[in-house]
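## retry 2 of 3
previous attempt timed out at serialization; input unchanged, resubmitting
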Amino acid sequence: GGIDLSIGVMVAVINVLAASLMENQSFATSLLIAVGLMAVGVLIGAINGGLVVITGVPDIVVTLAMSFVWGGVALLIMRTPGGGSPVEYQALGTGVFFIEWIPAGAVIIALVLALVWLPIRWRRPGFAIYAVGSNRDRAYLSGVNVATTRVLAYGVGGFFAAMGGLAATATTGIGTPYAGTFITLNTVAAIVLGGVSLAGGKGGLVGPMAAAFCLT
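## retry succeeded, writing output
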């Protein structure tokens, strides 16, 4: 039932971190760095969610404020576009899977959907997220820990933002602190076109994925 306006700059933070750390590194090391940055994305998202819960300030206000904070962090890490990543890592974003008609990026998206989103969606944490999005009071009366669930939702959002930052590094081969300039607005558009209710409690991941392809 909330909205995160810091998604774009979170993508930029992970993008510049990845490009800084992966430069002149091997493919195996770059993959380990990528896994670590996924955890960083979860942490950043959880910080946003924690501030929303602790302060009681509306989500849109807290995340808008944090977008300036994370944007500053991105600029501290890398002031101008630069860095790099191994060619093999870049192939994950621009290459193909066995045959030219199957983009490697599409395979990765499918794996993330199957290994990350579906296990969350169809287990207690996912049901709790949807319940809180539908009606926080009823979710609380049903035994859902509303505060923890909201932080979890932002943590999951942070994970996907990290995937976006890693994808940006793979497709461009560099990092830029301005990578997320237009991403936040596009994510909201993809969410709406994908059938997710901005009021919360309704929608999934497949619709926004299809909408993102259409927008791109």
